[in-house]
Amino acid sequence: FQEEGYLVIPNFFENYQELLKRSKELLENFDIQTHPKTKFTCKDDNHVGDDYFLNSGDKIRFFFEEDAFDEEGKLKKPKEKSINKIGHGLHYHDKVFKDFTTQEKLKNLAKDIGFKDCRVLQSMVICKQPEIGGEVSPHIDSTFLYTNPPSAIGFWFALEDCTTKNGCMLFAPGTHKRHKVSKRFVRNKESTGTTFLRSTNEDEKKWFGGEFTQIGDEKPEPAEDDYVVAETKAGSLVLIHGEVWHKSTHNFSDKSRFIYTFHMIEGNNEYDEKNWLQPTAEHPFMKLYDQ
Ligand code: FE2
């Protein structure tokens, strides 16, 4: 993990069928009539930054695949086959995911990694639906969940087999040592939406009052050749360093690719107030254990 910036741990958990079943129940049960039809995409400057997304940190909300709708704005498939992800507060509200997230094995792992005041945030089920499951463009997670110094680590659990056919992960090993945070996904000044903020863009820095903590030099993004495929069996855990570059491809196959994921951050590090995800009075970031 320290060398490569990610680690696949096969057979980490056995109850993936239970988590998969619960994910599918959530998809069956949500009310599409009252849904604002928010799409989720990781492409630059194309985030749908409305209230439904911005205030989802402590709720269970549903985000559509980008290709879920036809030209007339109608769903091409049933709603349960149209959702890209469920997020971002499953660990607060859903018993199955809360119990899973707070299990002893994960607490011990967090301590082994070196977390002192470990906080869990941004839990989500990513469905990557058959045929329309969207790609995730290359990124590092600290762009989205910035602490000073950076501390985010992704915990990524395969609920189904993830292969090159249904859009498994690809990592650029070792990039966490060379590439530092040079782009941030932040709330805009009015907190009405989101934007990317680049450390190299003087206008963007000025617009945000010149505040941008960058550690190390800007490096170009990794090349295509730098990435290695990480196929994972259901039951695998993948640990993802906050500064390692990764991505995943579109799912054109007839098999879904359900995964559950959340992040841990160090509660003793300053959590940046510009980050898209903010704690609320009702739901501060969940403490995984007492220090
Ligand atoms: Fe990521």
Automatic annotation (TrEMBL):
Q: Does the keyword Iron apply?
A: yes
Name a GO molecular-function annotation: metal ion binding
Q: Which keywords, in A-to-Z order, does the entry hold?
A: Iron, Metal-binding
For activity, the cofactor(s) needed are:
Fe cation
Q: Does the keyword Metal-binding apply?
A: yes
Q: Gene3D superfamilies annotated for this entry?
A: q2cbj1_9rhob like domain
Name the family the entry cites. Belongs to the PhyH family.
Designated name of the protein? Phytanoyl-CoA dioxygenase
What species is given as this protein's source? Answer: Clydaea vesicula
